[in-house]
Specification:
The complex is a heterodimer. The longest helix of chain A is centred in the first third of the chain and has 24 residues. Chain A is globular, with a radius of gyration of 17 Å. In chain A, the strands form three sheets. Chain A has a five-stranded antiparallel sheet, covered by helices on one side. The termini of chain A are close together. Chain A contains six helices and nine strands; from the N terminus they run βββαββααββββααα. Chain A is an alpha+beta fold. By secondary structure, chain B is of the alpha/beta class. Chain B has two domains: about 150 residues, Nucleotidyltransferase, domain 5 (2-Layer Sandwich); about 150 residues, 2-Layer Sandwich (Nucleotidyltransferase, domain 5), CATH 3.30.420.40. Helix content of chain B is about 40%, strand content about 20%. In chain B, the strands form three sheets. Chain B has a five-stranded mixed sheet, sandwiched between helices. Chain B has a five-stranded mixed sheet with strand order 8-7-6-11-12, sandwiched between helices. In chain B, α3 packs across α9, α5 packs across α7 and α6 packs antiparallel against α7. Chain B is globular. The chains are: A alpha+beta, B alpha/beta. At the A-B interface, α1 of A face β8, α7 and α8 of B.
Chain lengths: ~210, ~325
């Protein structure tokens, strides 16, 4: 077992002689069986389709090997790379502009990740790999893009006291390259959300 | 012993409550406005409040066995709520404070729901699912602030149920009628389930349910509406608990009177090894006791209002309010 969350469990295993992560959505006794099945089915499908959409535009995500929407199971490649979180905690250099560009590319294609914490970002030599699209959405709303980034900003604040500001600025620099059309508006939205100051929220799981 | 009199008048209930400093309830008078047709009209409700307010205050004092001079402070719901309704409560409170020369305390209605729920349930550090006609939020305490972890992106769950009831020709308030019908429903219909992060959205759910009226048995729509909307609420409550690492959950607000909703939250808590803390249902809905109780907590902090600066705040958000120090009620 790698992780047990409110919604899913992650298990590390071997599947067809490959290192894999099995994500299984947990059935909830409080909702009726039929609704439970419906929710698990649609979220499992949505998550894999968002991963697929991200790949199409060159954003790296784990490879889906097997999918059983009825059981809420996704079998995907285990990507053995350090998380952004651990890399930062060890004080190592990170190409934050490349990360920003990746997020910009994702947003420009109308996809939000929904849980962009440093534990959900792996740093591979080929570029950042984004994990867990379980809370992802397809959208055109600037507010949602800004919230995606704001969550990352908040997590960086918690992770690096003092240096978060500089780190986030580099991410935004890269972001403006990835999402040329709207980065200005989205930056303004992030400011607006910070001022509202009521977002201790989102980002449900920390692996 | 010090006593606090609290006045609730944010929506359709004009409530006057009296509590002592330990939160013992000495009076709980409620005058409930019931609209002849449709929903609550602010002007009609406020007229009703104005007509019944003196009677409510006198009844409360009598039931508490106190005279106005025995009360140490007067609390009133300053917002959020309907402007005309809030102003009736505020005027009564100012008058009482002025003639008795006692402190006037302005109380946030949502915070009062949370504090009475915490007090009555014996919870210490819970996540609250606050659900009523005008509000749908998942709130918790972080230090001396209230933090909204999630909320509805459009309409409140109570508003959704009332609107559906109105379209289906059911009487106000719609919630209890829908609950009765839902007990006879069996079939889960295709109605949108919308959770985004820790937020919910209810308007798509309502639109679809309204479109089904007349096409399928009303019992099945009521049943599906409850199952889907309440599952959404339970899910975001669980997400907030998981995120914060808190293991207590309580429900507050009028929609909490729905047995199915409380059952779901209870079941969710059991499954994750947490605790659902219930309390007397009569304190779920709007009442004066909750205003008196939070007023008495704030009075201890010296949080009083100047009469001249005691205007109502119809859109007062709970995040803008300081929470009183946490007490262990166990």
């Amino acid at each position: 077992m790698i992780y047990l969350g409110a919604e899913a469990e992650l298990i590390h295993g071997i599947w067809a002689s490959k290192d894999v992560v099995v994500k299984r959505r947990i059935s909830k006794g409080y909702r009726m069986k039929e609704l439970d099945l419906r929710i698990i089915w649609s979220r499992t499908l949505k998550e894999t389709s968002l991963m697929h959409d991200a790949k199409k535009i060159g954003v790296l995500t784990p490879t889906v090997y097997h999918l059983n929407p009825k059981m809420g199971i996704i079998v995907m490649s285990f990507e053995n790379f350090p998380t952004l979180r651990n890399t930062m905690l060890e004080g190592k250099e990170v190409d934050l502009k490349a990360l920003g560009r990746t997020i910009g590319t994702l947003h420009a294609a109308g996809l939000v990740h929904g849980d962009l914490t440093p534990s959900n970002i792996l740093l591979s030599p080929g570029g950042p790999i984004l994990l867990d699209f379980g809370l992802g959405e397809r959208t055109k709303e600037e507010e949602m893009f800004a919230e995606d980034l704001y969550l990352l900003k908040r997590s960086l604040d918690e992770l690096l006291d003092g240096h978060a500001e500089t780190a986030f600025r580099k991410i935004l620099e890269g972001y403006s390259v990835g999402f040329v059309a709207k980065h200005e508006k989205i930056k303004a939205k992030i400011e607006e959300i910070s001022k509202r100051g009521r977002y201790i929220r989102r980002g449900v799981h920390h692996v | 012993m010090s006593f606090t009199l609290g006045i609730e008048s944010t929506h359709h209930v004009f409530g006057v409550g009296v509590v002592d400093e330990n939160g013992k309830v000495l009076a709980d008078v409620r005058k409930t406005f019931v609209p002849k047709t449709g929903g609550v009209h602010p002007r009609e409700a406020s007229k009703f409040f104005a007509a019944r307010s003196s009677e409510a205050v006198l009844e409360a004092l009598e039931s508490a066995g106190l005279r106005l001079g025995d009360v140490s402070c007067i609390a009133f719901a300053r917002g959020p709520g309907l402007g005309p309704c809030l102003r009736v409560g505020a005027t009564v409170a100012r008058t009482l404070a002025a003639i008795s020369k006692k402190d006037l305390i302005g109380v946030n209605h949502a915070a009062a729901h949370l504090e009475i729920a915490k007090k009555m349930s014996g919870a210490f550090d819970p996540v609250v699912l606050y659900v009523s006609g005008g509000n749908t939020q998942v709130i918790t305490w972080v230090g001396d602030r209230y933090v909204v972890m999630g909320e509805t992106e459009d309409i409140a769950v109570g508003n959704m149920l009332d609107s559906f009831a109105k379209s289906a020709g059911l009487e106000f308030p719609g919630g209890p009628r829908i609950e009765d019908l839902a007990r006879k429903g069996k079939r889960l219909l295709e109605i949108p389930y919308s959770v985004k992060g820790m937020n919910v959205s209810m308007s798509g759910t309502l639109t679809k349910a309204e479109k089904l009226i007349g096409k399928v048995p009303l019992e099945d729509i009521a049943f599906s509406l409850q199952e889907i909307a309440f599952s959404m609420l339970t899910e975001v409550t669980e997400r907030a608990m998981a995120y914060l690492g808190k293991d207590e959950a309580i429900v507050a607000g009028g929609v909490g009177l729905n047995v199915r909703l409380r059952d779901m939250v209870k079941k969710m808590c059991e499954e994750r090894g947490g605790k659902f803390l219930d309390y007397e249902p009569k304190y779920y809905g709007d009442n004066g006791v909750m205003i008196a109780w939070l007023g008495s907590l704030l009075a201890r902090e010296g949080d009083r209002l100047n009469l001249l600066e005691s205007t109502v705040i119809p859109k007062w958000r709970i995040e803008d309010v300081k929470a009183p120090p946490r007490l262990n009620y166990k």
